[in-house]
Amino acid sequence: MEAPREPHSVSLKGTFGPIYPASAVVNVEQCCVTFPSSWQKSTLVENPSHAFNLPNGTDEDFYLSPILTLPPAFGQAYVGETFSCTLCANSELLEGAERVITGVKIGAEMQTPSGTVALELTPAEDEHVKQVLEPGQSIQKIVRFDLREEGNHVLAVSLSYSETTMSREKSASSGRVRTFRKLYQFAAQPCLSVRTKVSEFPISKLNDEKKVPPKPTRFALEAQLENMADGPIMLEQVTFNTKGPFQATSLNWDASGPGGQRNEPPNLIPRDVMQVAFLIEEQKQGVGPLPQRDVKDGRTVLGQLSIQWRTAMGDSGFLTTGWLMAKKR
111, 144, 157, 327: least surrounded by Cβ within 10 Å? Predict the structure, then answer.
């Protein structure tokens, strides 16, 4: 029979970060928030009569804890948005403990369907690595990762620290390095479904009969954007980035109307569909030479469609399609 494992002196807790899905960079299980100094000098803090008495003197049953705490497995995120969370290493030692914690390090990596990516934590490692983590103190790190593909994702977090046992003379009698690992799983699914169609304007035969130089080639790009998320989104910007000798003109809400007025960005509720369009024209010959056409398998490459949106919680999202091409002639 295996002996029971000794509990760690440092606990690791995650909370949903400022970008996805809510604006909360706090750990409600322990006080990890540093308040402005002006708050500590406020009369509201100095006078306890302004505060409500709690039955047990603590806020351990704070009802937002399960909402903000990052569970081992949770719902889904959306492709194009930024996953963000706060990792908090808390000292679980009691006052007067004979052990001292130093060298606390937090590392994280994201396992995606296509591979594993090491994540950069902010703030970067600083002097706290060499300092003692006192009982009740904590260290915070923020993780951000741009979601670019669908499928299952796993946030793997590792924590290591040095634990030193002190004698009665306050000298180190023994020490060891302890590590453990936590996994947080979620699925990334599309927030926007994009369907595109490219049509080429016909060239008039009258130009050949009158021997008039043919007009530059023109295409019409149509795209249907469907909101696949569970909540509403606002389309901030839809642009077409051309390639080669082409230029694009927007025919959407951001196009200038009479008097230079522009419409407000559209809002899409779940399963709403918005149609956008662009006029793509070949640039006229100027002073300098024009870029050459990029042709793949007999099809002309026109460019890419870029979409920016924002959710009801203020989270921003960005999506770029693959290369869009004209049909074979």
Answer: 327
